[in-house]
Design brief:
2 domains; 4-stranded mixed sheet; 184 residues; alpha+beta; 6 helices
Length: 184
C-alpha cells in the first residue's frame, strides 16, 4: 500500500499538473456557485436581507437627498452662516408660505394646492426672528423646460408676494454668499 498514493498522484515532477488541475476544478466550482445564486454559502455576510413591503405592497428604495452640486453648495452656505442663521434643504414651500387669510377658504385651498408638492432647494432661516429670510434654487438644465419655467415663475411670484428674496443659481455660477446674506 505505501506505493499506492505515489501511483495515483504521480511522481514529484508530475505533482504540478495535478495541483493546477485541482485549482481549476476549485475555480470552476466557485464560478458555478456564484452564478447559481449560492454565494451566500461562501459569504453569508453579503446576503441581502429580505425587505418588508409597504402597506401598498410595494418595495421602496432610499434615494440621496441632494445631488453632488447641492451638497457642495450646501457646504459653501453653511461655512458662511452667522450664528442666528440656519440652512435647511428640500423644504416644502407649503411649510413656510400660505395664501393670506384675507381670502375665503375655497380660494386659499385652491391656491395652496399649487405649491403643496413643491420644495425649495435651500431655505435660509433666521432662528432669532423665526423667519425665512432667503431661498436659493439651483437651476440646472431641466429649468429650461416649459413646465419648469412655469413652475419657476409661480414660485418666484409667490416668494415676491411673501417678501422672501429668491436667488436662482445656475450651474458653475460663482456666488458671493456672504453678500447674498447681507442683502436679506
Amino acid at each position: 500500500m505505501p506505493g499506492f498514493i505515489p501511483t495515483i498522484i504521480g511522481t514529484a515532477h508530475n505533482l504540478s499538473p495535478f495541483l493546477i488541475l485541482l485549482a481549476c476544478i476549485l475555480v470552476v466550482g466557485l464560478l458555478v456557485l456564484k452564478t447559481s445564486g449560492k454565494t451566500e454559502l461562501l459569504t453569508p455576510h453579503a446576503k441581502k436581507k429580505k425587505r418588508p413591503l409597504g402597506v401598498d405592497g410595494l418595495i421602496y428604495d432610499a434615494t440621496p437627498l441632494m445631488t453632488d452640486w447641492e451638497v457642495n453648495f450646501f457646504r459653501e452656505v453653511k461655512a458662511v452662516l452667522s450664528r442666528d442663521l440656519e440652512c435647511f434643504t428640500q423644504v416644502r414651500y407649503a411649510d413656510f408660505i400660505q395664501v393670506s387669510e384675507d381670502y375665503d377658504r375655497y380660494t386659499r385651498y385652491n391656491a395652496n394646492k399649487k405649491i403643496f408638492g413643491k420644495s425649495a432647494d435651500f431655505v435660509i432661516y433666521n432662528s432669532r426672528k423665526r423667519a425665512v429670510v432667503l431661498v436659493y434654487e439651483l437651476n440646472d438644465s431641466t429649468h429650461s423646460r416649459p413646465d419648469r419655467m412655469e413652475r419657476d415663475a409661480l414660485i418666484s411670484s409667490i416668494l415676491a408676494s411673501a417678501n422672501i428674496p429668491l436667488i436662482q443659481v445656475k450651474p458653475f455660477e460663482e456666488r458671493d454668499i456672504r453678500k447674498d446674506l447681507r442683502m436679506r
